[in-house]
Request: fold
Amino acid sequence: LDESQFAYEVRQDDIIVLNSYQLHRLDMQGSGKALSLFISPAFLAAFCPEIESISIECKSFLYPKEEQARFNLLRSEFASVFQAHYKNESR
Reply:
């Protein structure tokens, strides 16, 4: 990695947001699994026109255990979205 690149090791329940313009690569170790949710920038721009000038920073694994509660609502909402998707997909 050069000085402009970052590598993160994430674990179960970790959350990371990658902005649409950020290049990234995911290397899975062992039997790990990852869930991905893509939201179209055009869809977001319909609700928030300035979204293209906003950079979202969300990396739950950079916070200590006692501060993880702030991410619980996001974890819960992601779980609900994926459960609904897979429930509809299995019909």
